[in-house]
Amino acid sequence: MTYPGTYSERRPGHPQPRAGARPPAPPPLPVAPRRGPGVRRTLTTLFLTGLVASVLPWWLDTPAGSLTGTTAMTTAAGQITGLLAGYLLLVQVLMMSRLPVLERAVGGERIARWHRDLGATLLVAVLAHTALILVGYAGLEGRSPLGQAGVMLREYQDMVSAFAAAGLLVLVGLTSVRTIRRALPYELWHATHLAGYAVLLLGFAHQFSNGSQLFRPGPVRTGWIAGYLLVIAALAWGRLIAPLVFNLRHRLRVADVVAESPDTVSIYLTGRRLDRLEMLGGQFFRWRFLARGCWWQSHPFSVSAAANGRWLRLTVKMVGAYTRDLRDLDPGVRVWAVGPSGTFTAAHRTRERALLIAGGSGITPLRAMLEELPPGAALIYRARTPVDVLLHRELDWLAQARGVRVWYVVGSRRDPGPRQVMTPDGLRRLVPDLTRRDVYLCGPPGLVEQCRQLLRHSGVPRRQIHLATFEL
Amino acid sequence: MRRALVAITGLAASTTALVVLKAAPGTSQVAQDVPAGQPPAATGAAEDEETSPDATAAPATGKPKATKSARPQGSASATPSRTASGGATRTPSAPRTTTAAPQPTARTVTGPVVSNEFGNVQVQITVSGSRIVNAVALELPEKTAQSVQRSGEVDSRYSGTGGMVVARQGADLDTVSGATATSRSYQQSLQAAIDRARG
Asked: Where is the composition biased (Polar residues) (chain B) (predicted)?
């Protein structure tokens, strides 16, 4: 096992608190050094600064006491929500830019959650902006709000595209409501969601032709345009240039497809310069297999072995038509990968030891992470039947090599064994120092949620619980 | 989802807070708002200013703002400074009286500030003898981009040496469609200025 020391080289000043405590075992086990939440905090601060900066022009432009009467107040509220909506839209697109720094420091899943929550906020902001401006302007000009909408469409500059942008945004928002999204085919949802870029484009002009703070040339207008340019640059970098550089450097190809269980396969990939691949166990890539029937879809899968400089492996459970096609991939098929992404790694631990809880095929990122965790980790592996236990040979070997305690908890949810383990007492019996460990959860959403609540009840602090679930 | 609700609540609360904060009258801005709130008659203390075309009066009073706007603006003592500065900064593109003033004496007469729901309107006319030779809008509503656009339409139709005011020689002007309120306020301020010039 040759683990490239890239991560320790990158942060030479980082303290390694375990170095002294560990007994000098003959082959020193590679352990990923910790990465703090510093970058994430910086990003949050930047976001809030931008939020304030986006409303600041309005604040400075509006003399105190000038908002007398409901009409003026409605219009002002419409301007504020408009500025906020413009800013949030940029942030929303930026979060989906796959910018490497975001993907590695925040992680694809957390970004997706933020994107979801901020998306709901953006939708409300845009609807409020539209309604408030309509009512406000209608009050100013003595019309009904609907009549005002007609006038704005006909007489105001760039308002047709702005209304179209708002309509598209509502469509994107509605199709992302969980229940509606489940009823839609993924491809349709995805195509609708791509309309988000059209929202950016269509909504652009009206901000500058009609926005009270933006229509005058000056620093505010320049800054706003700079924001747009930055986001577009981030999109180009994250979606185009960075993946291009990565894939040209590594040129991944399928080497072999191996059955792990009746419904699970491991796909081995080789490529060039894999020793320079900067990846942590537990991270995922978005894979695009350039074979017939597969090339137009990109799916996130965790890597199921830590970086070893020779090959990559992903282990995939066949749950749909797409994943079934992966079983028939021929060796030599080119693979386009975007990543790595995710903070579900040993480097993001907050404590010395870890407890990993896997459900079914959720073992794959944990298996990779086990190679980089300090000794003394524990693994609870839930599986419905013995056949569903994946990679158990490797797990047993890792258990021995790295001092990991492994429990296989096999059976249905109602069987006595699993029921006994999945209680606060049961967990504490297996892992007495539960609350002093980081807990990594990966598996079906039901199991992950159940375990999360269980852990919170057992007194594990929230920041020590790490979740990996692609379900939004 | 809980976070989204928090964010949405935050959005609503902060927007409301911002609006309410700005709605509360601040001490520094009150002085600025008073003239706008006053009835036209009160602020109608417009100054009749005598200027020679060769602008000998301007250097005499030495008002720097007069040179900036290139508008003949004589006695600095009686003109409310707000009117003067408003005229100097807000109508940079206004036609200049000096270029169209071959007449022996021209007087500029400033109308009162007339406010409507979009903002304030103030008109200044230049009278040569009994003839209006120019009209300039010292102030027009420009709070929103739309407002600016409409004010621009009103200004281009009415003001200037070739505008409707000069053509009609009075305040009986066609209302600019889509800018009724601003047109009316313009006419009010103009009428008061004309009355002032005659009286």
From this structure: 72-86, 179-191
